[in-house]
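Extended Data, panel c. Modelled sequence:
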Amino acid sequence: MTTPQAPIDSPFGYRSTALEVVAGLDLSGKTAFVTGGYSGLGTEIVRALAAAGARVLVGARRPDKAAEDLADVSGAVEILELDLSDPASIDACAAEVAGRTDRLHIMINNAAIMACPLARDARGYESQFATNHLGHFQLTARLWPLLKAANGARLVSVSSIGHRLNGLSVEDPNFEHRDYEKWLAYGQAKSANALFALQLDKLGEPHGVRAFAVHPGGIATPLQRHLTMEEQKAMGWYNEEGQLHPMFKTTAEGASTATWCATSPQLDGMGGVYCEDCNIGAMAGPDSPPASGVWPHVRDEALAAALWDKSEAMTGVAFRP
């Protein structure tokens, strides 16, 4: 049964950190997989899960760089090569995961690209949709047996307030019949991330697999690599002196909601919801702040099912019951 999209009484909030979220939790004996777990908030997600005793597998496009960035993380951390824009790399990574463990208790689909110039993968698919959504769709499908075997697994799909830009076209996800606009493409990919969690939770609940979509908050990370400082100033992220907006979160704060969704006992028996600030998000309304709230299209079950069918057709990968 899908959980109502409405806030609950969470002990954590906007400025909570990932380490605070796992304080007192014992994840010993549990295995987690985190994509992009060596950059930005991904590093802090890995740090928190490992600190709580989990064995953490990290999917990294640049394993050598990941080893450097995670060198100060204590605990059981293993790095695997993964390029989400390359179907062969996805399959190879999934096979390696299956060779290392027979079950996954936590999977956090965190890696992403944002607002980049038009590019296409080897299949001709638009890069933001291909990397942020289709790559994770294929990876999760390949690891589906391990999630089901965990008897209570959770999957977290990192979305964004960028979902409010929408742009989702099941008929033309690759911008073949409409003009490409980098923010529209990002909104489409982040909407897809949220809809993926909605549909996966419906399919996974009978197997004990619950899924959550997450908006981590505004955070200054390498995700902004394709944006100029002038663009970021125009959006209000930085002032004219180049100082970051005080409402931005630190990476440790930005990692907290994904970590909370992956581990909190408060969410036992729940799933299929979009979360922000360590809580289930509220539906957006006319008085919602510009950086929070859940837009109705990512709660559309028919759209989620249609996107799922399209994703299976585009990847050639199906989830087995």
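The mean pLDDT is 92. This feature is highlighted in the accompanying rendering.
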